[in-house]
Amino acid sequence: MSTERIWSYAPESGHQEGHELTGYSVEASDGTIGHVDRQADDTPLRHLIVDTGAWVFGRSLLIPAGLVTVIAEENRVITVRCTRAEAKAAPRFGTDRETLDPEYLSAVGGYYASLPHDSDAPG
Which of 76, 82, 90, 105 has the fewest CB atoms below 10 angstroms from its CB? Predict the structure, then answer.
């Protein structure tokens, strides 16, 4: 996936403009990552901030919108195109200041865009 496309929801994901995703559970191909703490849809680099809870010691992750494969309204679950280990290995998210840092966002986009395509398949 190109780094430009990594920041936009895929048309087939079910994303609806203006729809609030806060609180939705986020599922990787091999299990739960956490829940959406907040979303950034008012920027060209659209993304979700995911609270991982105890799984990664209370750490949050920045997940680009292009990783979202399905938004299931009925059970409030978002499925993303990566594994739990791939999400955990992403560039570390510390504070909201990083969402304005072009170098950090470039690193995140490059990391997720380079993931192997076999993580597309449900595991």
Answer: 76
- Residue 32's φ and ψ, nearest 5 degrees, are -75, 135
Tell which residue, 72, 77, 70, 80, has the closest CA to residue 13.
70
Query: One-letter amino acid identity for 97?
Result: R
Residue 119 predicted with pLDDT over 60: no
What is the model's pTM? 0.88
Structure tokens at 82: 């990566």
Phi, psi of 76 (to 5 degrees): 55, 50
For the stretch 40-54, pLDDT in tens is 999 999 999 999 987
Residues in CB range of 83: below 8 A, 6 or more apart? 28, 29, 30, 119, 123
For residue 14, which amino acid is it? G
User: Tokens for 63?
Assistant: 């997940």
CA dist 34 and 25 (Å) reads 6
Closest CA to 78 of 42, 50, 56: 50
Q: In the numeric block, which tokens belong to residue 24?
A: 């939705």
